[in-house]
Amino acid sequence: MLIDWFTVGAQVLNFLVLVYLLKRFLYGPIIKAMDEREQKIASRLKEAQMHRDAAEQEQARYEEKNRQLDGQRAELLSAMKHDVEEMRKTMVHGVRTEVEGVRANWYEALDREKDAFLRDLQHRVGEHAYALARQALQEMADMDVEIHIARVFEARLRNLKEDEGEKLRQAMDRSQGKAVLRTAFDLPQDAVQGISGFLESLKTGPVDLTLETTPDVVCGIELVIHGYKIAWSLGAYLESLETDFSRAFEAGRVRQEIQPPPKEQEDPPEILQTPPETVPGDTIPGDHE
Amino acid sequence: MRISPDAVVLVQWGPVALNATIVFTWAVMALMVVGSWLVTRKLSTGTRLSRWQNLLEVLVAGMRDQIRDVSRQDPDPFLPFIGSLFLFVATCNLLGVIPGYEPPTGSLSTTVALAACVFVAVPLYGITRRGLAYFTDYIKPSVFMLPFNIMGELSRTLALAVRLFGNVMSGSMIAAILLAVTPLIFPVVMQALGLLTGLIQAYIFAILAMVYIAAAARVRKREETPPTYDVEKGDSSHG
Fold first, then answer.
1. Is B13 on the interface with A (CB under 8 A)?
2. N or C: which end of chain B has fewer CB within 10 A?
3. Per-residue b/e over A41-56, b at no fewer than 16 CB within 10 Å?
């Protein structure tokens, strides 16, 4: 008999015991360990996912901040560019205004110098012309210029137009006989008497004629009566000479101004340097007016 | 020639005979339980674990997967029974390489005992999971099939026992015969083949047991689906 029923029963019992022992020592602990590990891994994954979510949120926050900073930087840059441009325009305008001012001062100084020069020229030319004429007439025709000038002046006075003579008379009345006679030279006595006689003929009463010698009256005579002045000199001729010179100066200045204006950034310093050399007032001849 | 280790009686107390089958079974049981205890007394739940724990986890996880594949149900209720069947039969067979060792599964008494356990476990699982509705399986498709169903249960249990006994016993017999005829080399090859056969038999035994139990328990799931005919509608009331 191959089947021993006692052994069968014993083996059934053995197997049931084995099932219990294996469940107690093998399946239970192993499954529990595996479940715990799975839970740990799951919790770790969940934690990792949370960290990842937090990191992504942080990243999104920083990206948003970066975008804001970029925007602010662009705005600041734009504002700064605008400010710099405004400042540049202001500075250029200031420099241009300053250059214009310096140029205007320079031209003004130049004009003053020109006027002084012309006056000086007029004066010197008058003196030289008078001296030359006087000397030439003295030597060549034995004529005294002063006497002739005085006579001519007296003759002109006597030949004044009626309305001018009337004005002279009214002036004599207002001055109560006071008159000033200015010459560049000492008048001969007869010439003074002639003029004085003429003035007395205008006014009944004594005439107080004051003689003044001044180089300003270039080669001529001036009669001043209470603001009314009658002059006879080379002044008119010399003024035409001054007018000619003045025109020549103006022509030269216009040619200078027609030339292309200097560049904004480079030329102004050169202009700034030149005027001070021409401006000093000491070089202007004395103003006689 | 000795066919079964039952014949080797070590101690005899009247009707109680302590034979080699029982002793070797105890030895196998002690090996399995002590081995399990040694490994599982300090288990790691972290990511670093010992090789033996890794081996046991692979075994348990593999058995759970197999049970889940076969039964299509939660494997944990079946694992202690099916897993113990497989591990016991496999261990008994694999230890056959040790000289002087007689596999307990080479005893018809052992295989009958295991088959009897399966024979009892099938209705137990069926009743546990389905209630008394389990017994309606025996009168399907009609009451006249009841004797044939019972005979089927018995015959498949007998086949389970005889298949395992025959394979293991024949392996041992062949090894013994070849050892007498050609004592060199060839028995070693047959022993190696015996290892493979023993493992396959353990697998077949466990899988068949699982199939029988799952068939008894799985009907319940079919009954939970919308019933298509009256008999199943009446069964669902016991679920």
1. no
2. N
3. eeeeeeeeeeeeeeee
pLDDT score of B134: 87
Burial of A80 (0-12, 13-18, 19+ CB in 10 A): exposed
B80 has a chain A CB within 8 A of its CB: yes
Of A10, A22, A23, the CB nearest to B32: A22
| Residues B91-145 pLDDT 10s | 999 998 888 888 999 899 999 999 999 999 999 999 998 888 888 888 888 889 9
Determine contact, residues A49/B110, Cβ cutoff 8 Å. Answer: no
Q: Please say whether the dihedral angle defined by the alpha carbons of residues A98, A101, A105 and A106, taken in this order, is positive or negative.
A: positive
Is the pLDDT confidence value at A269 over 50? Answer: no
What is the per-residue pLDDT across B9-44, written as a single tens digit (0 to 9) for each? 889 888 888 999 999 999 999 999 999 999 999 888
Please tell me the distance from the alpha carbon of residue B132 to that of residue A44, in angstroms, as a whole number: 46
> Which residues in A have their CB inside 8 Å of a CB on B?
2-12, 14-19, 21-23, 25-27, 29-34, 36-37, 40-41
**Tokens matching residue B43:** 């288990």
Which is more confident, A116 or A289? A116
Minimal CA separation from B15 to chain A, in Å = 8
| Total number of residues shown for chain A | 289
A250-274 burial string, b = 16+ CB within 10 Å, else e? eeeeeeeeeeeeeeeeeebeeeeee
The answer, for B174 touching chain A at a CB cutoff of 8 Å, is no
* Per-residue pLDDT, A253: 67
Please enumerate, as own/partner, the contacts of B232-237 that have beta carbons within 8 Å and a separation of 24 or more.
B235/B133, B235/B136
- Mutation for A interface: B23, B53, B110, most A CBs within 10 A: B110
Overall average pLDDT of the A235-250 stretch: 77
pLDDT of the residue at A1: 58
pLDDT in the model for residue A268: 45
Q: To the nearest whole angstrom, how far is the Cα of B110 from the nearest Cα of chain A?
A: 6
Min CA distance, B227 vs chain A (Å)? 36
DSSP A260: P
Rounded to whole angstroms, the Cα distance separating B89 from B63 reads 14
* Tokens linked to A230: 């009658």
Q: What does the domain layout of chain B look like in residue ranges?
A: 5-238
Which one has a higher pLDDT value, B220 or B232? B220
Chain A touched by B236 (CB under 8 Å) = no
| Whole-number pLDDT of residue B168 | 86
Reported for A150-153, long-range contacts at CB under 8 A and 24+ positions apart, including other chains, are A150/A187, A150/A188, A150/A191, A150/A192, A150/A194, A150/A195, A150/A221, A151/A191, A151/A194, A152/A232, A153/A195, A153/A220, A153/A221, A153/A223, A153/A232
Distance from CA of A70 to the nearest CA of B (A): 46
Give CA–CA dist A209/A164, Å, rounded: 20
**DSSP assignment letter at A211:** E
